[in-house]
Amino acid sequence: MEMNKRIIALSGVAALSFNAVAEEELQDMSDPLAVYTQAGIGYTDKGLNLKVGQAYDTGNPDTMGMHVLEFKGIMGEDLGWNGDARQGNDNSIDSFRYRHFGVDLTNGRGSQVDVNMAFKTDNGTQGTASYSFIQALPKMGPVNLYPLAGAGVAFGDTFDADRPDAQAQDRWDIHGTFYVVGMYGKVEITDKIWLNYNPMYMGTMSGSSAYKDNGFGVGNDTVFAHEAAISYQINPRSNIRYFANWTEYTDFSDGDHRIEYNYQF
Description:
Elements: H1 2-7, E1 38-44, E2 47-56, E3 63-74, H2 76-79, E4 95-104, E5 109-121, E6 124-135, E7 143-157, E8 172-188, E9 193-197, E10 200-207, H3 209-214, E11 222-235, E12 238-247, E13 256-264
Antiparallel strand pairs: 1-2, 1-13, 2-3, 3-4, 4-5, 5-6, 6-7, 7-8, 8-9, 8-10, 9-11, 10-11, 11-12, 12-13
């Protein structure tokens, strides 16, 4: 299940914008797809998260790009607030995530590379890497929708899905491939308060029998994942956000929860 939680970290919020302009201009931080240089810190049920993002000039006035790097679960044993989630946690980094975003300003179409590595799953170190396309749709009143579709590969320590308590083998392999379809959604409540809902449906496509049958938890070859957030814009450069992540196999209360502060440079 822990590997499942890391794999669905794909349902994290993207940061690129079809209406973004020069980097030095402040971007709308309520836009799920805004590109800007940023830093953030999150307090989670599994410890602290640190995030840095760097927007850059692609050399083409019609495109923009950004790198984002996150380190998660820092000081989880001492600072994680959920007693159940802290079982087995220590104070080292739980996982990291790297994302690269590109966006075409002429048609509202973006691309996303998403790499996740989790170090403390039941099956040792496990990771995913995926590539997705995102398309911004015309705004409908207070609602913005951004459909997404892509594919990726799962890799990490060799594991035996029939023995979830077995120790990971001393080697890595590529377990198989998966697809993801979903969307990012935003609902504007006021000019300072907004909601996000980002559902993602994922399923295995190829690989070992163990992966194809158990890629999203023992006995599960697909998963419907949810991410929801409520946010408040403190000023044009900073906001505070509350996130919750859960799946069809994980109750909301047992999912991942975090409070995050973000600053735009």
